[in-house]
Amino acid sequence: MKRRQTAQPTKKAGLNKMVLQVVEKFVSINGEGSRCGQLATFIRFAGCNLNCGYCDTAWANDRKVAFVPMSAEEIYGYIKDTKVTNVTLTGGEPLLQKDIGTLLALLSKDPELYVEIETNGSVLLSKFSDLENPPSFTMDYKLPSSGMERMMALDNFDHLTNNDTVKFVSGSLEDLEKAKELINKYKLTEKTNIFISPVFGDIQLESIVDFMKDNNMNGVNMQVQLHKIIWDPNERGV
Ligand SMILES: C[S@@+](CC[C@H](N)C(=O)[O-])C[C@H]1O[C@@H](n2cnc3c(N)ncnc32)[C@H](O)[C@@H]1O
Ligand SMILES: Nc1nc2[nH]cc(C(=O)O)c2c(=O)[nH]1
Ligand code: SF4
Ligand SMILES: [Mg+2]
């Protein structure tokens, strides 16, 4: 009698290759942050641990989203092929990619590139503090209207420098009050760059300016997502 064979795990060369899950990659102008208006190559990764009520890329967080597995070297190759020197890594939550450290280390060796990474404030930035030439972190602090404030890692404020940014995406007066409180409490304008952005379409732009005037918010930048003015706000790949 034949013995029933059980499937044995195989270890083929390349099977354990380190890969990152890329849901889209494109060149556009950066619509946000300190290099707003400049060309940038965007790499968007799959998956997020948060569920912000206003998320404009919730599709990338769907467990069933289609992604292309790419190694750090393949992503670097794509970036160099574009001939664009600004790079934005985003998502989803890019810092949750298992091999993001490998990619950041590889990109940091290229002095021609300016790399920024959009992160949601829940991932400890201390994990990346040993990088020799670190990227610019744009760290969101998720305000009350996101529904995700409880997930914020406040220790991250200690790891930001003048090469980084804290972004407060605000959808209400309560959000603005909270942003002001944190900026003052942690003396954020002395440490890093600060941006306040509206949750797109949810708050009168004038009310943000009025709030900044009423509260002497010197050193704070207000910014509206430029790509949502140029293209349809729901358009992907722009
Ligand atoms: C889609 S997230 C991806 C990176 C990371 N998960 C994060 O939240 O920072 C990129 C940026 O878009 C912002 N964003 C998402 N939806 C938005 C909306 N409806 N209006 C304004 N900004 C939005 C986020 O706050 C974040 O700063
Ligand atoms: N043009 C453009 N600029 C951006 N800056 C940050 C983006 C993001 O989704 O993280 C983004 C985006 O999706 N498009
Ligand atoms: S953390 Fe970023 S990607 Fe995740 S739900 Fe919030 S805005 Fe969307
Ligand atoms: Mg976006």
From TrEMBL:
The protein's assembly and partners: Homodimer.
Positions annotated to bind S-adenosyl-L-methionine: Y54, C55, D56, G92
EC number: 4.3.99.3
GO biological process, one term: tRNA queuosine(34) biosynthetic process
Known cofactor(s): S-adenosyl-L-methionine; Mg(2+); [4Fe-4S] cluster
Enzyme category, top tier: lyase
Cofactor remark: Binds 1 S-adenosyl-L-methionine per subunit.
Name of the protein in question: 7-carboxy-7-deazaguanine synthase
Catalytic reactions on record: 6-carboxy-5,6,7,8-tetrahydropterin + H(+) = 7-carboxy-7-carbaguanine + NH4(+)
